[in-house]
Amino acid sequence: MQKKYSSLISTLKDNLTECDSLNELSLIKSQYLGKQGKLTLEFSRIKDSKLSERKELGRILNNIKIKINGLINKKSESLENTNKKRQLNFFDVTLPGRNISSGSRHPISITINTITKILNNYGFASVSGPEIEDEFYNFEALNIPASHPARDMHDTFYVTDNKLLRTHTSSVQIHTMLTNKPPLRIMTPGKVYRCDSDPTHSPMFHQIEGLCVDKDINFCQLKGLLINFIEQFFGKKMEIRFRPSYFPFTEPSAEIDIKFNNQWLEVLGCGIVHPNVLKNVKINHKQYSGFAFGLGIERLAMLKYGITDLRIFYDNDISFLSQFGVLK
Amino acid sequence: MKLSTNWLKEITPGIKIDNKLIESLTSLGLEVSSVSKTKKDTIIDLDITPNRSDCLSIYGVARDLFSIYGKTIKLPKQKKISVKKSQLPLAKINNIISPIYSCLAIENIDNKVKTPQYIKTRLSDYGITANNIIVDILNYVMIEIGQPMHAFDSDKINGKLSIRFGKKNETFHALDGQKYLLNNNIPVVTDSDTVQAIAGVIGGKDSSVQTNTKNIIIECAYFNPEFVRLASKKFRLQTDASYRFERGVDPLMHSFAITRVLSLLNEHTTLHKTNYFQKANKSKIKINNKIKINIEKFEKILGQQIPKTKIIQILERLNFHPVTFKNMITIIVPSYRFDIENEYDLIEELARVVGYNYFKPTPLPVTTSANIGNNNFLEKYSPYFIARGYHETISFSFLPKNLQNNFIQSSNIITIKNPISEDKSELRTSLIYSLIKTYKYNFSRQIHDIKIFENGNTYTNYNANSMKEVNTISGLISGKNYNSNLKVDTKDLSFFDLKGDLLSIFPGLKFESSSKIKTLNNSCQALIFQNKKYIGYCGEISNELYHENSIKNNVYIFELFADDITMKSSVIYKKISPFPRVKRDLTILVDDNIAGRDIIDAIERESFKYMINIKINDIFYNRKEFGEDIKSVSIEFCFQDTNGTLTDNIVNKQINLIFNHLAKCFKAKLRK
User: Which of A56, A304, A307, B170 has minimal CB crowding within 10 Å?
Assistant: First the structure.
């Protein structure tokens, strides 16, 4: 008998757990306590039992009724409470989150990073060097003697009579080759300086140079590497041309142009390391050969991101910088 | 260089002016920067690299195109004249300045004749204004074959011409109207009294040719490129002549140039007596240089074979006169090719004539990277700064003059000798100045809540020969805590936000009160240490900086010396205890001037058993209760054992030990 009633309570409890509205609750209430309710039916059966048991049964059923009422009332209260709360304060999930940190990497750094990651896959290691240089590292060792017209290509800032701000990161090649033996594969990102300032020239800008010295390094490999590099950088096939150019420290020298909007744009200078440069750093040029290439970071960043004014890179306007927030 | 295609066709009649020509020029290394049409002509603008002075003329370009086209070259008309050895109008010629010096003396020339239109047009298409027939024809021939020449009015020349270096304090009045102060590095042409020209750069005003000039001396010389360049640089004076001389002009083309000029003068004006003189010391110039190359070297360096017959044909067309013996080729460098010195130069010649497109890209052999790369600090740490809301900035290394003077001795500042402007004339000794500039820039654009960081070198002069560059990473914060949501959550950023950022990125840093850093506020600055090594500083900017920059909001900065920071490279796992942690607070009263760090250090030094963590979690003042200069410090401890669960007894015992230690060290009292 008791068992039967306790199952009644446990079913009710299950029903109540699933119930989440007052309407549903009143339905449940009538299922148990209504005219045709389960408990009402039990009450009506009292008269069918033995006289001696009737009193006891009535007491049990009454207790159950109290219990059921209690459970239903409690549920009703809790449902009303939730409703009140929701009505009082609309829970607005669209409000801003707390402590959003929206920093960003500078597009120049992002570009350097992209480049070094690609070159690193080809075995190039990143190396840095001083920005204040002697003429030897910046010019002479690179086969640019004092009287050479090629020095006109480099409007140089001097800090003393013979110390200058490096005009290219090629100087790092010299430091590296003087202290390390081939085979070498290095890349040298960094700041460089030229006495030049207008919308397309900045007195400070960034360059990265690559240098590979080994036995049997040749021009076809240089082409292979740089074509792959450019396509990986831009993420698509590009129309690329190699044309002869002149740098005192490479021979043969080439300039790479990329076709953008039907126009050839110069993006990269490269060539086979000039034997004089190898001689200057005491590497046997009969045994070893090498290639080198260099490119302007700002120029590549401008092409990649559609930036037209060079100066915006150094204004550090947060409205500009934060556009690069999602990139790494 | 502006190339008239009509003119080119006069020299190479077989050439077609089409896209192939444009492509061939670029492919040869004579980059076409633009093509424009005039009434009757097409002008190609070429960017000639400094090594290719041989292509600074129509004839020179035609000669280079021959290597591809092989079309016959037709020399322009010349009028023969033979050299006279006697009656030289030349006195002393310094043959280091000019190993070969020629001149053409002409008497009774009519310089009033109008220059023919075609010459005027070609000069103007090139960018030279027509002047008088003599000067115009000299310019015309310079563009045509590349030899710069100068005409002196011989009636204004006293005695004979000489070539020497200038003298100290000697002055020269040039035809551009300027007076130049000479020195003993400047090569000059003089008569017996005065300087008549800076050799290879510009002629003199007095002896310049005018319309009424009757008698002239035309100078046709080879000048040492180095001296011309020095003079041109010194006076910042670049002329069509100096541009060519400093890059190298064919020393063996004087008679070609003179006979060409004579032919044109004869054609367009009247003249009488002509005399051609020359003084030469050919031992002073490099001519007929020979270069030997093994034919296999071409393939070794270029990576792809070129048939031997093709190699020989190209070398022949370049006028190199190749002679082969077995695998060796010997060539003679033409007198106009100043850029050909070794076998690599020949390899480039071959590659450019074949065309760089000929060479098929091949993969670079795989290798492991040599172990020479340096650890890139910025790459490693910038993602953490960004995650904490910092924007990376990049600023110029230059600062305005005197900006740093209040904070560092001026002898320590490195200045640029030739700055582009005063506001970019000193190198920065700290990144703070750049960060403040960026802060102000953004503040004036209504961005007031700012977190920025920058990595770059700072530059300091220690003595004349010791300039030091320090790889530095610095940051600045100001305003409300970044991008907070509702107003109730916002707080002004403080020193401890900055410290929190640094400690999150570089755990274990120690901060020590300081007043040494001049750019920082005396009472709000700290020196930063990592493993007892000084690695930087942080704090609020100094009152001076607030004032100078009219900054109203609080600004905090940090500056770290990147190369001094030890980067965590690998982790060695420590066993984790499975037993519960027990937290306890201890509140003590100590003198106000005892730093929190000192209390923590004193406890940590003793390494109390089971203590795994310690933190100050409250500071409280109450003068009435504690007395003057006494503060209440609450310390939170965390205990854990690796072998079992800690009982209250054990923990209480440890807390007692710790308190006794603090009482001993700092006269700490227990707060009741």
Answer: A56
